[in-house]
Amino acid sequence: MDDVARYMRIGRVKAYELARDPSFPTIRVGRLIRVERDAFLSWCEQLNQSNKHHAS
User: Is the dihedral of CA 21, 25, 30, 32 positive or negative?
Assistant: First the structure.
């Protein structure tokens, strides 16, 4: 989640809050939270497209 936080320029707490969102692509193994790179980048692109659509 540290990489996600750095990429998005948010704090670790916010990154973990984001990980609790059902739309965010996480892989959970017990208490461990992992984010697959390609799934994360796809999620970011979808969010970006959604924001562009709402801004129009």
Answer: negative
